[in-house]
Amino acid sequence: MADRRPHIAVVGSGIAGLRAADALLKREVDARIVVFGDEPHRTYNRPGLTKKRYPLSDALESTIAEDVRVKGAENDAVTWRLGTEVRSADLSGRTLRLSTGETFAYDALVIAAGVRPRTAFGDGGECALHTHRTLRGLGDARYVHQRLQASEKVTITGAGFVACELASLAKEYGCEVLMLEALRRGPFESLLGERLATALGRRLVQHGITFLTGDFARELLCAAEPSHAEPPPDRSLFIEAIGSVPNVEWLEGNGLDLSDGVRVDAYMRVSPWDNVFAAGDVARYPDPWTAGNLTRREFWKNAIDTGDLAGRSLASSLGYGSVTSPIGYFPSMSTEVLGLRIQIAGDPRTSDAMEVVCGDPDEPEQGVLVAYLREGTTVGAAYLDKGARYNSAYIKLLRSLRER
User: Fold this and answer.
1) Kind and range of the H or E element at 146?
2) pTM (predicted TM-score)
3) How far, in Å, CA of 62 to CA of 139, rounded?
4) Partner residues linked to 335 by β-bridges
5) Across the beta sheet with 276-278, what order do the strands follow?
6) Tens digits of per-residue pLDDT, 40-67?
7) What is residue 397's predicted lDDT score, i.e. its pLDDT?
8) CA separation for the pair 398, 379 (Å, rounded)
9) Exposed, middle or buried: residue 251 (CB in 10 Å: 0-12, 13-18, 19+)?
10) Are 160 and 186 in contact (CB under 8 A)?
11) How many other CB atoms are there within 10 angstroms of residue 30's CB atom?
């Protein structure tokens, strides 16, 4: 007998897609939910791929996969179509074209396709000097960890979260590390500002990492012509961690605003389609922190919050409950680099001034807490420390941010 229930397609098997599916299940939506993922793995913790050193093993990929498992991903109440890429979508006809050659007809759609690493050298290109890689999925992690375990020389371009975590990991593995940041003066400069970024750059150097910026970095960026011929085996590892690109090409031709991800409203709805929603890294929504602006964020908590809201909004559109609260995402993120914990909250990028609350910005390893202000109002905070000496002050600052 044919399944007459509504068919809901979730494109993307990351945490945003999983949380959207979970929200539908919690609302007891009577529908067939199908999650499409281009990787063969169910949802896992992508940020975890760069945070831990693993022992040498022939089963490295499965070891990492087990370590970054996400609770709830084992749920079989949904249908998982893994290793299946969605090639295109016809939103007016409510159909998806799959990499298998099939088409899938849906009644409602959640776009949670995420992002892919940005590359300067070219997708899949190689050169005589380096093995070029990015790190996004489990397969990438297995390869990179194997190479780092061999204590090879590694060059990392970029100085954001992935780049700095990889550099820290490479030092743990005993590698010689070169970091190149051609556009900024130090790690996380676009978030933390020049003074803290410069201090973090000095700390990288103090821990044995060669960290070059500006023209010095540009001179060492790989400019060799790519080749698909069989490369020699002794090239050093060259990892690009210079940002990301939203996966939206499959949505072209539907009249959507795809200029930076998929534009949605404050309830994750994709206008003008009342049955299409988007969530996670790919969704660009009205910024609750800066009225009149749109924002797209690539952090784990954002994917969780927007995925849940997209699922609840979809459920409401089918008559299962109501959604009364629009997106109210509170930006917060954290990482650890060379033993230094870095926590950032709010939106420091919108600030016009920085105020030191505790500590010395030039010595972050001794602990420093700073507030970021816009027109005298606190809009962001950053706390860097090897311990928790200013933790209570940071929590107090967070409370004031949430209450603004």
Assistant:
1) helix 138-149
2) 0.93
3) 10
4) 342
5) 79-82, 32-37, 7-11, 108-111, 276-278
6) 999 999 999 999 999 888 888 889 989 9
7) 93
8) 10
9) buried
10) no
11) 9
